[in-house]
Specification:
12 helices; 4-stranded mixed sheet; 7-stranded mixed sheet; 4 domains; 458 residues; Rossmann fold; Glutaredoxin; alpha/beta
Length: 458
């Protein structure tokens, strides 16, 4: 009787159903346990909008001690912060995130000095910093300030027609200044016409495209500063003699750079690469997509940068300097020495053929073994202006150069990109076909399929 019962069809089906139910329950239990222990996600967005940047990953993975992120807000608002803060905890076991409700734990919030909801505090050892915003820039900036605990000041030289950091027009450097602020730099303007020495609080000086000649005392100040261990980003445009304003040769400043191993050519690079048309720029914009091996550009593989109205340069090592080229123009570029005419002849035998070096970085050996001067020279200044700094990788290049000059190599990386607006652009004919197919063809296919089924069953 028992054998007969075991062989019965109902018994087999019941056994199968029981096994299936147990398997499903086991899978569900294991999945829930793993989900509670490990928070993993897959970012399918084109620009990795929901993935922390390489810069943040470097900072977190290089931690040598535990870091605590304490977020103070109402309990109902915790989920909107978890999406970001838990990504930091997933990067390293050294990062712990704690969510605190000031209303339920008023004594804890009072001791921490919390006065408003949505406040995030980063604590590493005995140091702590408040995040300026609940964004990756805000949280990572708090990490940087906690780890560095130093003030880094970028001094923009003014007085000789340079780009100004308070200028919000196309030629201004206000966006450059804002990006430096987000990267926890302090920016200010200095005039070498009013003081003989560069202020001691300047971590890096920026000479951004002077249009008039530097006076001898200003040139001497720059030379003295770098050769004593200072850091400088020097951006010099070709001495164009067309349009307004004309650009001075600045031979005295160029002579100092030549003594350091960087010789600036008096020419204008024209890029005949057809990719420029696809990028929406003309031949006057030199496009760069390949880079040499240097910390400033080592992580910019495959990222294009653009330099409007640029000049070429030559490099060589000197007695106290070691100079390395950073990048060059494309093979389809050329350089003309005619700087007074807006037109050019690509067949002129006097033209120099590309690729042509555009940027270089060097170090100066001082008398102090633990202190070296650093300088970056680029034959163009407009690439960092408001009108062009958002072009592809220009902002990354600017911040990477600043990180290297200030000896913050651990922060060099590709920064997170803002959300992309990716519209679908279609011609009139394409729009017409989309309308016809969606309003007529697809409904007609459904109707014909229904008629076909009815006809066969009839």
């Amino acid at each position: 009787m028992a054998r007969k019962w075991l062989r019965a069809r109902q018994t087999k089906y019941a056994a199968y159903a029981t096994v299936y139910i147990l398997v499903v329950l086991t899978i569900a239990v294991v999945a829930n346990v793993l989900a509670n222990r490990y928070n993993r996600s897959w970012d399918s967005t084109a620009n990795k909008r929901y993935t922390l940047s390489d810069q943040t990953a470097k900072i977190v993975n290089d931690l040598t001690q535990d870091a605590h992120i304490k977020y103070y807000d109402q309990t109902g608002r915790f989920p909107q912060a978890r999406d970001l803060l838990d990504r930091y905890a997933n990067l390293s076991s050294r990062v712990q995130v704690e969510y605190i409700d000031p209303d339920r734990n008023p004594q804890v919030a009072r001791a921490a000095g919390i006065t408003s909801y949505g406040t995030a505090i980063v604590e590493i050892g005995d140091k702590k910093e408040q995040a300026k915003s609940l964004t990756e820039e805000g949280i990572s900036g708090a990490f940087i300030r906690t780890l560095k605990n130093t003030t880094r000041t970028v001094c923009f030289v003014s007085g000789s027609g340079e780009h100004r950091i308070d200028d919000t027009d196309r030629a201004g450097y206000s966006n450059f200044k804002d990006m430096l602020t987000k990267d926890n730099y302090t920016s200010k303007s200095i005039s070498l016409l009013q003081q003989s020495d560069i202020p001691g609080d300047c971590t890096v000086i920026v000479i951004g495209g002077p249009t008039t000649e530097y006076q001898s005392n200003a040139v001497a100040s720059v030379q003295k500063y770098v050769e004593a261990g200072g850091r400088a980003l020097i951006l010099l445009d070709p001495p164009l003699k067309m349009g307004r304003p004309t650009i001075a040769d600045n031979d005295a400043l160029s002579a100092v750079l030549a003594a350091w191993g960087v010789t600036l050519d008096k020419d204008l690079i024209l890029d005949l690469n057809p990719m420029g048309q696809l990028a929406g720029v003309g031949p006057q914009v030199a496009l760069v997509s390949t880079y040499n091996f240097h910390p400033i550009v080592s992580e910019m593989r495959g990222v294009a940068t653009g330099f409007p109205l640029a000049r070429s340069l030559q490099t060589k090592n000197m007695d106290k300097t070691a100079v390395q080229q950073l990048f060059s123009s494309s093979e389809s570029s050329l350089a003309t020495s005619d700087l007074s005419s807006p037109s050019f002849n690509p067949q002129d035998p006097k033209n120099k053929k590309g690729p042509l070096p555009l940027g270089a970085a060097g170090t100066f050996t001082t008398d102090q073994p633990d202190k070296e001067g650093r300088f970056v020279v680029i034959g163009n200044s407009q690439w960092a202006a408001n009108s062009f700094i958002d072009f592809n990788g220009n902002s990354d290049l600017a911040l990477n150069a600043m990180n290297w000059l200030s000896s913050d190599e651990d922060l060099i990386s590709i920064r997170p990109k803002p959300p992309e607006n990716r519209p679908i652009n279609m011609t009139t004919n394409q729009l017409r076909w989309v309308r016809i197919s969606s309003q007529f063809l697809l409904p007609l296919v459904v109707v014909l399929a229904g008629v076909s089924v009815w006809w066969r069953r009839r």
